């Protein structure tokens, strides 16, 4: 049985308490590894190691030297691609076809993109007049924030964790990472890659454990953590914000959503169906950017529902190793309980179940897995729980609309604002509607098309701040103005 330890100051160490928890394969319920559970002592040791490393060789390196090391980290992930793929798929159950195209390559890219960005980024300078006539020059420099606490979720474990660790390290910070207890494997594996790439001890630390009253809370409460970056649920974000208030420490939050897709009758229906299939069902619907509410213009409503139903029923459910499978299990039996409770609520609230709504029949060896059926509903009221609350499962509700303004109003009606999709061939309408949607990211005739230089983040209760490209620098560095009197 694999044993997963913390990485503190360059060494893999177990917990002093000897406490461990099980890492479970969600496809069959089998235990993959025993993971050490960090207490306050381990979290404190990791934070102190990160603090000390700021003053070591890492803190003295030039931007290009750091960039070179981060390129080696990216190359190290690529060189061990199959191990990362295996680990990510064991932890999440997601199809290998998906993880090999998205999770692992993006995990490597996150280091290269930010290493290169830092090499070319400029700061501002201003000449100014002074009363004595001699003048002054202002120029700005960027400095690392210090020790960054990184708290990441289970849905895209390597991708979302490196999306934070990449820019944090490129900017010269050190990190303490707390991955989700559901998915510790790739975070641990990255520790080996970091060491082989020459990242100094204490720069990348990992503590495993749970959130509340455990490693997550101990890390966010730690006074020597200078800033906290977090991806996860909105309610968890509130708890972390309370912890960060002590010491007035900055946060960057990517939180929950209940994203809307608007499909106009003038869309290219083939594209809208293909895109909606991905935005609703990819990764078992466990994507923060996914669509759980679809608003379809009435003339094409019946055809759209019929075609999405056919698409959902054509998904091939199976394990990561099944080359035909494009639909895996949910992350855990606990999460399945939550998703199935919404499947029941939909029925209780009077939905028409277009397809799915239950648990698929699986072979005996997979019976312990967290499987659910891809599900589509129609006919619910706008205030129904299933239409207003984030489910984070492979399901959506589809509702007809008659007017453009009505669709915009429906899409904007919730307290979330992460992402939205618009399907139309009318360019003016696309720009007009995109401008009115209350969301941090709007896709027109596409979904999950990401350029890592662009701003990523949510509005309303879906987040605080933007990461991506130069926007990441606002969070991971302190901008200092130096004024020199001549
Ligand atoms: P959670 O908020 O439950 O957990 C995220 C991480 O926070 C985990 O590592 C968790 O630990 C930790 N955590 C939980 N409570 C605390 C606490 N009090 N203090 C410190 N850390 C804590 O989210 P999930 O892991 O369930 O991820 C799914 C959620 O993430 C969805 O709501 C989804 O919308 C959101 N998400 C948002 C994205 C975005 O970019 N906006 C992207 C991807 C997901 P543990 O669970 O191990 O106990």
UniProtKB/TrEMBL annotation:
Catalytic-site annotation from UniProt: 254
GO molecular function: oxidoreductase activity, acting on the aldehyde or oxo group of donors, NAD or NADP as acceptor
Keywords attached to this entry: NAD, Oxidoreductase
InterPro entries reported in the protein's UniProt record: Ald_DH/histidinol_DH, Ald_DH_C, Ald_DH_CS_CYS, Ald_DH_CS_GLU, Ald_DH_N, Aldehyde_DH_dom, OHmuconic_semiald_DH
Any single Pfam family the record assigns to this protein: Aldedh
SUPFAM superfamilies documented for this protein: ALDH-like
Superkingdom of origin: Bacteria
Alphabetical list of PANTHER family matching this protein: 2-AMINOMUCONIC SEMIALDEHYDE DEHYDROGENASE
Name of the featured protein: 2-hydroxymuconic semialdehyde dehydrogenase
Protein species of origin: Ectopseudomonas oleovorans
Lineage: Bacteria, Pseudomonadati, Pseudomonadota, Gammaproteobacteria, Pseudomonadales
């Amino acid at each position: 049985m694999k044993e997963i330890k913390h990485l503190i100051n360059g060494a893999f160490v177990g917990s002093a308490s000897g406490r461990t928890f099980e890492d479970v394969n969600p496809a069959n319920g089998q235990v993959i590894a025993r993971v050490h559970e960090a207490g306050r002592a381990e979290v404190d040791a990791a934070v102190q190691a990160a603090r000390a490393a700021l003053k070591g060789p890492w803190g003295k390196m030039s931007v290009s030297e750091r960039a070179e090391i981060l390129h080696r980290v990216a190359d190290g992930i690529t060189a061990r691609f199959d191990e990362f793929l295996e680990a990510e798929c064991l932890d999440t159950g997601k199809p290998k076809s998906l993880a090999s195209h998205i999770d692992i390559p993006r995990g490597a890219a996150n280091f290269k993109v930010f290493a290169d960005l830092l090499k070319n980024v400029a700061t501002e300078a201003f000449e100014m007049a002074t009363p004595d006539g001699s003048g002054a020059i202002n120029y700005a420099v960027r400095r690392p924030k210090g020790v960054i606490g990184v708290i990441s979720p289970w849905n895209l474990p390597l991708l979302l964790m490196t999306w934070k660790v990449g820019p944090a390290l490129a900017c010269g910070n050190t990190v303490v990472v707390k991955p989700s207890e559901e998915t510790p494997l790739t975070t641990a594996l990255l520790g080996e890659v970091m060491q082989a790439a020459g990242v100094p001890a204490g720069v990348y630390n990992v503590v495993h454990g749970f959130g509340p009253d455990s490693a997550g809370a101990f890390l966010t409460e730690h006074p020597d953590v200078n800033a906290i970056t977090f991806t996860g649920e909105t309610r968890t974000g509130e708890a972390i914000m309370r912890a960060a208030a002590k010491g007035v420490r900055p946060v960057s939050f990517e939180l929950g959503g209940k994203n809307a897709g608007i499909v106009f009758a003038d869309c290219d229906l083939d594209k809208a169906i293909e895109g909606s299939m991905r935005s609703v069902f990819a990764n078992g619907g466990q994507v923060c950017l996914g669509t759980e509410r679809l608003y379809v213009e009435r003339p094409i409503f019946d055809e759209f529902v019929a075609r999405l139903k056919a698409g959902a029923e054509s998904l091939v459910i199976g394990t990561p190793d099944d080359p035909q499978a494009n639909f895996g299990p949910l992350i855990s039996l606990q999460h399945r309980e939550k998703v199935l409770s919404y499947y029941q609520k939909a029925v209780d609230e009077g939905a028409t179940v277009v397809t799915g709504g239950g648990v698929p029949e699986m072979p005996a060896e997979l019976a312990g897995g967290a499987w659910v059926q891809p599900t589509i509903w129609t006919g619910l009221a706008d205030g129904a729980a299933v239409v207003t609350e984030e489910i984070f499962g492979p399901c959506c509700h589809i509702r007809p609309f008659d007017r453009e303004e009505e669709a915009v109003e429906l899409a904007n009606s919730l307290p979330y604002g992460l992402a939205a999709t618009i399907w139309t061939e009318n360019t003016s309408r696309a720009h007009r509607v995109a401008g009115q949607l209350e969301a941090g990211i709007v896709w027109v005739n596409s979904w999950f098309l990401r350029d890592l230089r662009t701003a990523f983040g949510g509005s309303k209760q879906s987040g605080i701040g933007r990461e991506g490209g130069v926007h990441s620098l606002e969070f991971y560095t302190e901008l200092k103005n130096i004024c020199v009197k001549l």
